[in-house]
From TrEMBL:
Source organism of the structure: Novosphingobium capsulatum
The protein, known as: Probable transaldolase
Primary role: Transaldolase is important for the balance of metabolites in the pentose-phosphate pathway.
HAMAP family on file: Transaldolase_3b
Keyword Cytoplasm among record annotations: yes
Catalytic reaction equation(s): D-sedoheptulose 7-phosphate + D-glyceraldehyde 3-phosphate = D-erythrose 4-phosphate + beta-D-fructose 6-phosphate
Keyword Cytoplasm among UniProt keywords: yes
Pathway: Carbohydrate degradation; pentose phosphate pathway; D-glyceraldehyde 3-phosphate and beta-D-fructose 6-phosphate from D-ribose 5-phosphate and D-xylulose 5-phosphate (non-oxidative stage): step 2/3
Main location class: cytoplasm
SUPFAM superfamilies listed in its UniProt record: Aldolase (SSF51569)
Length: 217
């Protein structure tokens, strides 16, 4: 399963990239606003921090406008992935861009039928938002199960990119189901490293090591 980080904070991206586990980055207009940085400039910087896909989202709502924005965004770097909303115009744009060899992430997916449409439009990634789905009284992980089943039934190549992740259980379940990619905030990814017994174990080993009076090197 690939790990993407969901942020426009370049210090966080660099930190995670150094662990070697980062396969890509997703951003959205809210995350760009939170960074306080210029969209093009920060996207360019992110594209240098990872070789993996970097999702940059269009804000136009019509196909022509989305294509205009995508033209600008895809010139930033070869690893830019254009993010479009799951609407009719979004899927028209998806079809056109992927036919040209540009990666597309279809975002704001909340139903398995929507995911089916994204696959038929040739999306590189589809982003079902599990956290927001849970927040609205649905089971986000059931959505991922349904999409996996449908994509496997027809051997669709669109990758399931589990988005709007809130905690480690979302990641564990994504791996169990066989999702292709997860994107999560830096704090959630960093939380995966932690275990109380790991910390207790380190403490115990260091206490015993101190008794030896030795040092390494
Ligand atoms: C995914 O690409 C989105 O940027 C993101 O996961 C949305 O998450 P949120 O529901 O925490 O805003």
């Amino acid at each position: 399963m690939k790990f993407f980080v969901d942020t426009a904070d370049t210090a966080e991206i660099a930190d995670l990239a150094a662990t070697g586990l980062l396969d890509g980055v997703t951003t959205n207009p809210s995350l760009i606003a939170k960074s306080g940085r210029d969209f093009i400039e920060v996207t360019k910087e992110i594209c240098h921090l990872t070789h993996g896909p970097v999702s940059a989202e269009v804000v136009a709502l019509d196909h022509a406008g989305m294509m205009r924005e995508a033209e600008i965004l895809r010139k930033i770097a070869d690893n830019v992935c254009i993010k479009v909303p799951l609407t009719i115009d979004g899927l028209k744009t998806c079809k056109k861009l992927t036919a040209d060899g540009t990666m597309v992430n279809v975002t704001l997916c909340f139903s398995a039928n929507q995911a089916l449409l994204a696959a038929k439009a040739g999306a590189t990634f589809v982003s079902p938002f599990v956290g927001r789905h849970d927040d609205n009284g649905f089971d986000g992980m059931d959505l991922i199960r349904d999409i996996r089943l449908i994509y496997d039934n027809y051997a669709y190549e669109t990758e399931i990119l589990v988005a709007s992740i809130r905690h480690g259980i979302h990641i564990l379940e994504s791996a169990r189901i066989g999702a292709d990619v997860i994107t999560a905030p830096p704090a959630v990814i960093k939380g995966l490293f932690k275990h109380v017994l790991t910390e207790k174990g380190i403490e115990g080993f260091l206490a015993d090591w101190a008794k030896t009076g030795q040092s390494i090197g």
